Amino acid sequence: MAVPVSPASAAPLAARAVAIAPGLALSVLLALLAIRLRDASGLAALNPVVVALVGGIALRSAWGLPAWLRPGTAFAVRPVLRAAIVLLGLQVTAAQLLSVGAGALGLAFASVALTVPFTIWLGGVLRVSTPLAQLIGTGTGICGASAIVAANQVARGRQEDVAYALAIITLCGTAALVIYPALAPLLGLSPRAYGLWAGASIHEVVQAVGAAAAGGPVAVEIGTITKLARVVMLAPAVLALGAWVRRGKAGGGEVKAPMPWFAFGFLAMVAVASTGLVPPAVTGGSRVLVPLLLAASVAALGLNTDIRVLHAQGLRPLLLGLASWLFVALLGLAGALLLV
Predict the structure, then answer these.
(1) Least confident range of 16-30, 118-132, 242-256
(2) Residue 240 falls within a domain, yes or no?
(3) Cα separation, 236 vs 254, whole angstroms
(4) Is residue 37 in some structural domain?
């Protein structure tokens, strides 16, 4: 028997929904416009997440962020983002990962396990703030925008840190999309080696798949699955980062960070998808919903970003992003050559 909800208990929920609605609606509208722009342009590499970020920053710069929009944008930045990460797990199965072999899985693991700490270490050398270095490292080592916004749930960087990291990852990933196909013939890479290299070292999924496609069907298959193996590393990496921050190693003294429960939800969805019982319509729906939720979350992030603070970050984070990309590119290339 259902338990009735009293008017007294329903009132706060209704008030909360009313407060959230305007900012959330604006964030979703920006996300829909970003996806529409990508679809209309026909450019698969035009990431709606980045377009939504730019749109949010532009609106904030032009009109500011009224107080009545802030509850909804805050809701989009956290709960909406976490829901997107959980649903992302439906797009990866254990069978897919195992099909590329232990060597490719080891290379994907190494890309994450070595790139993230290297970037954090180099960030300290370059005097880049620890949260920003963590975000650049996870974005480079794992899966671009999704990793950055997920990692910030525990890194607790400023809105401007996230925006800067997203800009750097977009720049480097787009450059990789152009440079990798041009270098493949010069390096004499086989389709399998080229696919491994692209999947193990390019930032966003769409960028990695797009670059791998230049090498033919074998390259795109290997590249896609190797990239998905890095995506699976998102949950363990965020959990490890959260544990490290909670131990206070991200700075002096004890630092509190929330337990990233959404990471366990992501792994649970991977397990569910691996059973083979998930209807194709559900998996297909997640491929539509996840980009929308991610873009809405990042649009809200842009609405909360002060571009003046973003400009004040200087060039050191950009140098860090370029060095991190070079590191993972050389690591992926060496691993690909060893495995073929």
Answers:
(1) 242-256
(2) yes
(3) 22
(4) no
